[in-house]
Design goal:
The protein has 499 residues and is α/β, with parallel strands linked by helices. It has 17 helices and 14 strands. Helix 3 packs across helix 4.
């Protein structure tokens, strides 16, 4: 219907009237289906009319779905799918913008008339500036090639994984601290510039959201700027702001953090529980060196005490390689036994590295025949020594030392205590900057852990006073919470700002 009634009509009419094609390029995809991959028909009751979708979903959310789909693939469309698109990208972007606006208003921050030298800013500031310039290059190149999906995916990765989940997450304390020093000003300026950059790059894809960001961030403070983001020149990267080494090393750090979280999850160890160390092995030695050099970015994020290079994986982990029988069985039949034997005798670490790189694997059978297996046809699993947790991917293997000392256990309890207090602050609707006085009644284990880490607890929950009292001394309205498996009663009083 679309080809016959729309595209053909355009081509026929334009050719007849002007002798030229009606357009230079067309952005499209294969077929639109419903959420279950079924064809949409009014008679089936699964058709969604455009006006209904625009009102309930939002046109920018719809556009982002279309922009991130591979053109040769079908598009499954529906309210649940677009909810996922909104959750995956639109909400993280808006939350990043909201975070900036909230704290900038509290501190009455204004952008300096002359941009601050990037070289004078913190490592994370320099990194996100570098990544922003690299993103401009990536988006321009893909847009010039009419490769919309890769341009959109690059923007999404930058916003979600790098800006929201890393830069803002790692810099929260710079925005939270009460003093408005130069470091805090640099953080505001860097985040502001990153959000403005994103608004410009999004303009051709999400016209309404990008315009909202631009009006609120740019035009509201500088009316000399173009009236609309759609009247601005498209951004051009500044090579002098790109630090390729820093970008590469931070990318390795992000991969290690992702794997570290995965290893914790597999071992069922919460991030609040500190661990002695994380050991890192990468296929490229430069990545390991970069990770160790930037280990301060990992220590707090993964809650470990040290980051060390692991030269020999065999010291703590081994790989088990098995044939993927559902794939290899129909393909090789009776040779499966010989393939299994060849995989057992082969260098398991080398095969694991090839599979991780998505490279094919050559195996020699006892008969002398050599077979080439696809990466998906070899199953790789890690075997860890007792006392370790591990994960592998992206050219790296990380190993967590899970040995717990009494001091580490107490610190984990203190962190869970902080989590409980922060939940109570939210329930009491305290403002972000409100300081408190805290009294709690708990058993000896909780008291010991909080006392041993009292400075950390005070700093995290903005407590001017923390006092342990008996059950009969805590206020009647005190809240009862769980810290670990233990019940604790906590009373919070907001400090009077006039005191």
């Amino acid at each position: 219907g679309q080809f016959r009634n729309w595209f053909y009509s355009l081509i026929a009419e334009s050719t007849a009237l002007t002798g030229e094609a009606p357009f230079r390029n067309v952005f499209t995809y294969a077929l639109m289906r419903d959420e279950n991959g079924e064809e949409m028909h009014k008679s089936k009751g699964n058709a969604i009319w455009f006006d209904d979708a625009a009102d309930e979903i939002g046109v920018d959310t719809m556009r982002w779905l279309f922009a991130t789909v591979t053109p040769s693939a079908n598009v499954n469309f529906g309210y649940h799918i677009t909810d996922e698109v909104r959750r995956r990208f639109i909400i993280p972007l808006w939350n990043s913008y909201s975070f900036f606006v909230t704290y900038a208003r509290i501190d009455r921050w204004t952008r300096p008339e002359t941009p601050s030298p990037v070289a004078s800013r913190s490592l994370l500031d320099r990194w996100i500036v570098s990544r922003g310039q690299e993103l401009i290059e990536t988006v321009r190149a893909n847009m010039d090639d009419y490769n919309i999906q890769d341009a959109a995916r690059a923007i999404e990765h930058f916003v979600v994984e790098e800006l929201s989940n890393w830069y803002i997450r790692r810099n929260r304390r710079r925005f939270w601290k009460p003093e408005s020093d130069q470091d805090k000003a640099f953080a505001y300026e860097t985040l502001y510039d990153s959000l403005v950059l994103v608004s410009h790059l999004l303009a051709p894809i999400l016209p309404f959201l990008s315009e909202t960001l631009y009006q609120n961030l740019v035009r509201s403070i500088d009316t000399s700027k173009p009236d609309s983001v759609h009247l601005c020149d498209f951004l051009t990267a500044d090579p002098s702001l790109v630090d390729e080494t820093l970008s590469r090393e931070m990318s390795a750090v992000l991969n290690v953090v992702r794997l570290g979280r995965s290893a914790r999850s597999d071992a069922n160890i919460k991030v609040r529980q500190p661990l002695p160390a994380i050991l890192v092995h990468t296929s490229d030695r430069r990545d390991t060196e970069g990770v160790v050099r930037l280990k301060d970015q990992i220590l707090e994020e993964l809650n470990v005490k040290d980051v060390r290079a692991l030269d020999e994986l065999a010291d703590v982990v081994t790989h088990e390689i098995r044939p993927n029988l559902p794939l290899l069985g129909p393909k090789y039949g009776k040779k499966i036994g010989a393939i299994r034997s060849a995989l057992v005798q082969a260098d398991s670490s080398a095969i694991a590295a090839s599979v991780d790189r998505n490279d094919s694997v050559d195996v020699m059978l006892d008969s002398g025949e050599t077979l080439t297996l696809l990466p998906s046809e070899a199953l790789v699993s890690l075997r860890k020594r007792e006392g370790y947790a591990a994960a592998q991917g992206g050219g790296a293997t990380v190993v967590l030392d899970t040995t717990l000392t009494p001091e580490l256990i107490d610190e984990g309890i203190a962190r869970d205590f902080v989590r409980a207090v922060q939940d109570l602050r939210k329930q009491l609707e305290l403002r972000i900057e409100d300081t408190i006085q805290l009294r709690f009644a708990a058993g000896d284990d909780i008291q010991r852990a909080v006392t041993a880490n009292v400075d950390y607890v005070k700093r995290e929950v903005l407590a001017a006073l923390i006092e342990h009292v008996g059950d009969d001394e805590v206020e009647a309205e005190a809240a009862t919470v769980k810290v670990g498996s233990t019940t604790v009663r906590i009373s919070i009083a907001r400090n009077d700002p006039s005191d």
